[in-house]
Design brief:
Layout lengths: L2 H17 L7 E4 L1 H8 L4 H9 L9 H7 L4 H17 L18 H14 L9 H10 L3 E4 L5 H5 L4 E4 L13 E4 L14 H24 L2 E4 L6 H14 L5 E10 L8 E9 L2 E10 L2 H8 L10 H21 L6 H5 L7 H5 L16 H7 L5 H15 L11 E5 L7 E5 L1 H11 L9
Parallel strand pairs: 1-2, 1-5, 2-4, 3-4, 5-6, 6-8
Antiparallel strand pairs: 7-8, 9-10
Helix pairs in contact: 1-11, 3-5, 5-6, 7-11, 9-10, 15-16
Length: about 450
């Protein structure tokens, strides 16, 4: 086996161990490192330097502002915002749309210039250098993407995905598929951008609301983080708030993986953990350092054969179903054949048939549950509690129930790769794990 194959297998095994307990698409958390890689946007300091250079009458150096503010980028951004505001109302009036001068926030001038710069730097079509990576990202078909980036690169990578910006996230249905959540604002709407001290003060107050809204993703989906450094405050803030709810008793947020690209790594990808201290407690997430993002993307590729999914169609179907159940039926706006509905509510395959959707495979009826569902049936908030009971059975009996197909577990192949499987569990497993949970005697029937 070549060195490249060894590295690919190491990455695949790490990703597979993260995905195996979920029968759903991953959520990607993508940061500025990805935009720098694919469209060449500057880092935060580079953005601030570029904004300062927009003021033709300015004689203040960036180095002066950096030293004055102890290199605090938020404070530097606030100073530059003030300088651009002063210039806009004096010599720079002709550089801005007229309506900005009646806007309630003076930072709108900085945000307008920043949006213009990023829109100009985002090409209509992404270049050829990383074309394999672009196609691999599309093939992942993530449930959603979360980002603190302002640019529209992710929308270019994932055609058909809809941008949900700033506070819109708080009002949005996160069960929908195919969204890009710009939690720090977007160039599509410059006033939503978070960049100066006042913006971040508001964000700090509201971050827990965002965390609560995003909890669904962090509890029910594998979450993969790309393009952020180990110490990025944007990620750490969200993980601190999320960790308080979903971390296990050891502090591990088990379904989150941070991928760190390092072209200098020679050999196997490096698996480690990242500690996030908060209020006397320490949360941890898994990390994977690798010199090949393509290997990671390929390992995340959707685990089934259906290739063309229209995100807009899936969103429209979900939205219509939500309106049907929350508004139309309760209000009596439409006529309902309740006998038909009663006949399908307990049958997973009946509703798709009613909607004209064909099942790809007849999933093993004797193993209907994902591990997340097993965990819920046992009273746990996620899959992790059920998985620990499986580990306890392994420790006591020496039998790993997930190592073979049996009356408790089966692995269903859903793609071409050997690692492309979906694990399903039976009602017998639920009964067994209840005994293990309650410290009762149990006997395996293999």
């Amino acid at each position: 086996m070549s060195k490249a194959e060894i590295v690919e297998n190491s990455v695949s095994s790490t990703i597979e161990s993260l995905l195996e307990n979920f029968d759903c698409q991953p959520v990607l958390f993508m940061g500025s490192g990805m935009a720098r890689r694919y469209i060449g946007t500057p880092d935060w300091e580079g953005v601030l330097r570029a904004m300062l250079a927009k003021i033709p009458t300015n004689s203040t150096s960036y180095e002066y502002l950096s030293q004055k503010n102890d290199n605090n980028l938020i404070d530097i951004g606030s100073d530059i915002s003030e300088m651009i505001f002063e210039w806009a109302w004096k010599d720079g009036k002709s550089e801005f749309p007229e309506d900005l001068f009646s806007h309630p926030s003076k930072s709108i001038f900085l945000k307008y210039l920043l949006s213009e710069m990023l829109l100009e730097s985002t090409p209509d079509e992404l270049g050829e250098e990383y074309s394999e990576e672009y196609e691999a990202i599309k093939a992942i078909r993530p449930h959603a993407v979360i980002t603190t980036n302002y640019d529209t690169m992710i929308e270019a990578l994932l055609p058909g995905y809809e941008a949900i910006i700033g506070k819109q996230v708080l009002r949005y249905n996160l069960n929908a598929y195919g969204e890009v959540y710009h939690i720090h604002g977007s160039v599509i709407n410059p006033e939503t951008i978070i960049i100066n001290k006042d913006d971040y003060k508001k964000w700090d107050k509201e971050s827990k609301y965002f965390a609560a809204k995003l909890l669904t993703y962090f509890a029910e989906h594998p979450v993969i983080i790309f393009g952020y450094s180990l110490t990025d405050p944007n990620v750490r803030t969200v993980l601190q708030d999320i960790g308080a709810i979903v971390a296990d008793e050891t502090g591990l947020i088990g379904n989150v993986l941070q991928v760190i690209y390092d072209e200098k790594i020679d050999g196997d990808a490096i698996q480690t953990e990242i500690a996030i201290p908060v209020d006397g407690r320490q949360f941890r997430i898994k990390a994977l350092q690798t010199n090949s993002l393509l290997d990671v993307f390929n390992a995340l590729t959707a685990r089934h054969e259906l290739k063309d999914v229209n995100p807009a169609l899936v969103r429209a179907l979900a939205a219509r179903a939500m309106k049907l159940t929350r508004s139309d039926i309760p209000s009596g706006n439409i006529e309902v054949n309740y006998q038909t509905l009663e006949g399908i509510v307990d049958k997973d395959d009946a509703l798709p048939t009613l909607l004209g959707i064909t099942q790809a495979d007849d999933v093993n009826k004797s193993h209907p549950y994902t591990l997340s569902t097993v965990g819920e049936k046992l009273g746990f908030p996620s899959w992790n509690g059920a998985n620990k009971l499986l580990e306890k059975i392994k420790d006591v009996t020496g039998i790993d129930l997930k190592s073979s197909d049996n009356r408790y577990h089966c692995a269903i192949k859903v793609g071409k790769k050997d690692s492309s499987i979906s694990r399903k569990y039976s009602e017998e497993l639920v009964t067994l794990l209840k005994k293990v949970r309650d410290n009762e005697k149990f006997k395996l029937k293999m």
